[in-house]
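Entry:
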Amino acid sequence: MQNVIAGPAQGHIPQGFLDAVSGRVFPDAAAIDGFFAGLGPHPGFIAWFNATRNARAWAGKSIPATAACAARFRQFWDDGGQVFGAPPDLLHFLCLMSIMVNEVGGDLLPAEERVNTPQGNPPGLAYAFNAIAGLKRSYNTLAGNLPAGHLFNDPDYLAAHGAKPRPDNFDPADPAWNGETWPGAVAANPDPAVSGFLLEADFFKFRGRGLIQTTTRANYLQLIRYVQAYTGTDPAVLALQTAWAGGDPATLATTSSNDDWHKLFFGQTLDIARQAIVIHNAGSGNYLALASNDAARLNGTLAGSVYNMGHRISGSGSYALSFQARIFTLCESIGAALAVA
């Protein structure tokens, strides 16, 4: 007779399940795939996830079954310890991987936050610039960012970006550039050929990027310091390390470009995307410190819980509850498969 290791009952992960998977850590992607291959007729995690995920909890979410996605999965998780400071255990892997499935569609390709089209409401760049009630704060006045009105008259900004295109009716002295409502006389076209000079201001340049969106000058400053001290092999990071050698991070934040940050986040190794998660975690209450051996804490809502991780990442209680439900269903499937004599 076989005993099935219990998975979540009524939305909770049992202590018995955590005890059964305790000590299972994953130093690389091969170890992850090996564990999930052992759960059934699937060659690794991606195939297991797509075949067993709860269709209701994970509605509309899957992981692309492509060679490119599989390569990025290996690339990210071969160095997953960079994120956690040590090889992740099962719960840490499931939670972070599930966040990335939600945030970037599971293909582990970093994303850049979009703005509206010029015909949108609000149009184009105004989406990032404006405070929109019930939706978002103004990125122009977000804590840590420098307002566009300051940057448009900053000597370092002008030296780096002054030759880039400016839209018609643009007045750098307009006090509206220090506020939260786009100056209506200026076209909010996000095309660099029209608004290149405006695009390098903090409200747009330091919008969300990555596998978990990294925003604000304060977080990008930490990435600049990481680039300056980088010891890895990514060519894009090494090129900017050379360009930024000895520079003051605050000045480099002003003179850096959208193109620089695109190259960094989309580099060959995902080193910047991983480090951005480290920075986000440190600035958001250390949500990665999951109580993966303590069911009472893990199932609660305070520090160490699955709910807390979802809430710290999104700021939304509904997101946190949805995330919590998704993790419960994955653990339930694993518990059902882990049978012992």
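The longest strand covers residues 3-4.
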